[in-house]
Design the sequence.
């Protein structure tokens, strides 16, 4: 199944590379958001159901919702539909080229720019007023660009009392290693890559640019010390990268 996919094409992605991919007519909507088709095609319902289960306030009515890095594929479209049906005001922040690929709607405000450094208006208008924040699949890009702490700290300032923030899809290099060093992970790799060779897993190695247990658990402690509740959550087992990714839920009491 994994044979024939050019995985290198989806590595080292930056905000700027997503801007270019958004404009490339040769790419599918899944490739534009950095995934091979086989990872995301037909998975939109499961991903959005997992998001809704973790952000139950999305089922209330008339809230202010912010989606950071929504991309242009199924989860973003589901979010626009869901917020419209629940009379939420939705603010989506991404590259202008990516936002142009999404439908317009009266309840949707599109804010083009690199978050958080190019979105000062959001903080001026919405500090302490946002009920639900979603940042799905974007934290690894923000980390690689050296923006993790501005992203994390400034987003916390957006939350209203009772606010919920889901940071979805942390690629955790330590979780990945634990999986691919296990009998289950080795069998998964052999079947997926159609090979008899076990995956290469290196411990005690510098993993430049990768998030690990230290970074992720550090964020949990940071949020808690700032007065928020924070939890790490597994992804639904039927999500494409549940075996090596995890989510973080932050709640403002
Ligand atoms: C991997 S895609 C995920 C898209 C979507 N959340 C999903 O899971 O289908 C990452 C998205 O975040 C956007 N992005 C990356 N860095 C960003 C930043 N600093 N500010 C706003 N958007 C960003 C990219 O343009 C891209 O649309």
Sequence:
């Amino acid at each position: 199944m994994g044979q024939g996919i050019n995985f290198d094409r989806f590595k080292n992605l930056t905000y700027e590379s997503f801007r270019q991919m958004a404009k490339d007519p040769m790419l599918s909507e899944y490739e534009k958001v950095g995934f091979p088709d086989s990872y995301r095609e037909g998975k939109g319902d499961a991903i959005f159901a997992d998001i809704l289960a973790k952000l139950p306030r999305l089922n209330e009515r008339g809230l202010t919702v912010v989606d950071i890095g929504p991309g242009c594929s199924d989860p973003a479209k589901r979010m626009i539909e869901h917020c419209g049906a629940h009379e939420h005001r939705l603010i989506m922040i991404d590259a202008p080229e990516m936002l142009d690929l999404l439908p317009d709607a009266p309840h949707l405000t599109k804010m083009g720019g690199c978050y958080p450094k190019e979105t000062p208006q959001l903080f001026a208008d919405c500090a302490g007023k946002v009920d639900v924040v979603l940042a799905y699949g974007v934290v690894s890009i923000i980390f690689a660009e050296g923006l993790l702490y501005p992203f994390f700290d400034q987003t916390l300032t957006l939350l209203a009392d009772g606010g919920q923030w889901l940071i979805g899809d942390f690629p955790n290099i330590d979780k990945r290693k634990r999986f691919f060093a296990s009998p289950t992970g080795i069998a998964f790799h052999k079947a997926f890559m159609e090979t008899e060779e076990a995956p290469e897993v290196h411990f005690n190695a510098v993993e430049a640019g990768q998030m690990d247990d230290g970074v992720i658990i550090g964020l949990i402690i940071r949020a808690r010390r700032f007065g928020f509740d924070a939890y790490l959550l597994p992804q639904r087992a039927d999500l494409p990268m549940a075996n090596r990714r995890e989510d973080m839920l932050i709640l403002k009491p």
Residues 15, 18, 33-34, 68-71, 73, 75-76, 93-95, 98, 114-115, 136-138, 141-142 surround S-adenosylmethionine (CB under 6 Å). Residues 10 and 35 are 7 Å apart (CA to CA).
